[in-house]
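pipeline stage [seq->struct] | target=Major facilitator superfamily (MFS) profile domain-containing protein | organism=Mycolicibacterium poriferae | residues=384
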Amino acid sequence: MTLSAGGRIGLAGAAVVGVAFGMARYAYGVTLPDIRADLGLSELVLGLIASATFVGYLAGLLLAGPLAARRGSRAPTTVGGVSGAVGAVIVALAPSPWLLALGAVLAGGAGGWVWAPYSDIVTRTVALRQQPRALAIITTGTSGGLVVLGGLAILAIVGSWRLVWVAIAVAAVLAALVNLRLVPRTAPAPAAERPAGGPSLAAALRVPAAYSVVYFATVIIYFTYAADVLDRGSLPEWAVPALYIAIGLTGVVGVATGTAAQRVGSTRVAALCLVVVAGALVLLGLASESLTATAISACIFGVGYMTGSAVLAVWTAELVPERAGAAFTACLVVGAVSSVAAPALAGAVIPGLGLGMVLLITATVSLGSGVVLMLPALHDTARS
């Protein structure tokens, strides 16, 4: 059976994004308890390193555009694969917090290099009617990565947390090779096709950008501290791998985001995702001693997380189809800044407020933002 252009690009993109986001980006949170014990790091240092990973992510986002303009949109995806592999190797071998931070920054930066360029690749090479589905499939590749990451987390239980990072390095190399094989090389867009960003772009993205601030902050708080919450409780060791596997499996529903956005509007889908993520945070913060509550938290978070990221790709492509990559990048940059600030702030206030209270405050922000975003969507869905 021969795959269509959308199928080939969707498969390759899902593999690359799955490794960069589902594995390299969130492996730090999975291995955080063991890293703390092995290297003897404080909450503040752990939070700063988590924030630093998103500095790498932000750098990747900002540099991917210029590289794509010179070498074509596939080039940043290749750089991202290399960044993820090299960073994972450094983390696996790191004897000190400084090398750990360097490797984590490179690994975390992989996502910045690879995600947004696929918007341009899809809009330039895939038929219009297939684009929402292709974008959703690529984004939902993160679910597969999370399932694999959950399985790899067992290595941290029976062996060492460093083995998790070795496996991620291998996966990053394999995904990069698949990407080179299935994704066509795209020539840089002529200057005439790359209009300068102006007020119109900023105006079109006001609501998605505001959504990005809240969405990425809440998601990174969940991922950074979920394993830590379970580790502090009385749950069995396998609860952490199971949590990530559950997130990945339920997140597969994200492949339907394109269809859902076409039917009810991207704004409404985004608002519902923030509400769902809020519910997951509440359960994690209040009932982390309960295996059932933790499982429910992971399952509903998987739905909110994957649908929430997929809808952003679809949403920005709908609003600015002629500059889908630039529009998506702009929202991701805003979200990256939020992601840098959130873990550092959490690490600073956890000693005083407690981790559970920080999760509840984060949930409140997510819920309130979802309600605010929902109100205009109910009256003017067509504008989404």
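stage status: PASS
auto-comment: The two ends are 36 Å apart (CA to CA). Residues 192-199 have pLDDT under 50 and may be disordered.
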